[in-house]
Amino acid sequence: MAAGKAAHLSPWPKPRPAAPPSAAPFDRLRAGSFGELRAGGYVELHAHSDHSLLDGVPSPEALVARAAELGMDALALTDHDGLYGAVRFVLAAREA
Predict the structure, then answer these.
(1) Is the per-residue pLDDT at 30 higher than 60?
(2) Under 8 Å between Cβ of 54 and 85
(3) Calpha distance 73→55 (Å, rounded)
(4) Helix intervals (H) in 1-96
(5) Average pLDDT in the 50-78 region?
(6) Is pTM, for the whole model, over 0.85?
(7) Most CB atoms closer than 10 Å: which of 40, 63, 68, 95?
């Protein structure tokens, strides 16, 4: 051990110093490559259709139509235990 340095006796590795925050992940947003961000740019990323038994009510087409009415740029269909509504969802999204 060098003079003036304390020994690291912990069984865990020494913590690394935190990296300075970087704005790089947001550069593309500023450049506009993802399109314009709207105020309140909310999108639903956990929507169930009538293909989720006992959990969802609207059809995949109704979900897409409502998202389009609200000006949402994206929507995720997260039905339980299967992809039964996925084809109808994709076809409706292409038409919207």
Answers:
(1) no
(2) no
(3) 24
(4) 24-31, 60-69, 86-95
(5) 89
(6) no
(7) 63
Q: Two tokens at 80? A: 């339980």
Token pair 């609207």 is found at 58
More reliable by pLDDT, 50 or 41: 50
Buried b (16+ CB within 10 A) or exposed e, 14-23: eeeeeeeeee
Alpha carbon distance 85, 25 (integer Å): 34
- As a whole number of angstroms, the distance between CA 49 and CA 66 comes to 12
Alpha-carbon distance of 92 to 96, in angstroms, equals 6
The residue type of 77 is: L
Looking at residue 25, its amino acid is P
63 vs 60: CA distance, rounded Å: 5
